[in-house]
Amino acid sequence: MRTFILSAVFAGFSLFGLNALAAEFQAGKEYVELSSPVPVAEPEKIEVVELFWYGCPHCYQFEPVINPWVEQLPDDVDFKRIPAMFGGVWNIHGQLFLTLESMGVEHDVHDAVFDAIHNKRMKLATPDEMAAFLAGQGVDKDAFLKAYNSFGVKGRMEKAKKLGAAYQITGVPVMIVNGKYRFDLGSAGGPQRTLEVADFLIEKERAAR
Fold this sequence. Notes:
This protein has about 210 residues and is an alpha+beta fold.
């Protein structure tokens, strides 16, 4: 399974200034600079992307670490989640996420979907199973099924696949800053360090403007 093995515990690390981080975080070590930058959705902002899979245990464990960080991001940072598409159930769960996003309810049920898969051992591998579960979360079953099979969601899936390929990802969770830098929990040295790398690269991009 294409997930990164976590060797570091979920422990806190002190924050460093940009100069200290510059000495510590290096291209080719904690992060990779993409040879071909990927265009961002809103060029006036600094884009941060997390690629994930609902079935990935490390993505699930990363949630309580990354969510408070996302909530405190400044206005000039545009955070996005994109489902990784490696075929099979990855694509099915990706279609689930993109359907919820298209309906405007992803924020309300995202945690519940993760919980269902990892704690309640639900596979959520068919549209009917998803719709039945989501109905218990207040999502209209018929509306979900209609959106799940819609042309719009299929288009979002193709875009997500192309972005994953452009970012040259091989596993999840992985983060991309401003379409230029890729890093993950393994290269960064753990969940909290991953966010420190993200902070460093955000500031690097901000300073370059």
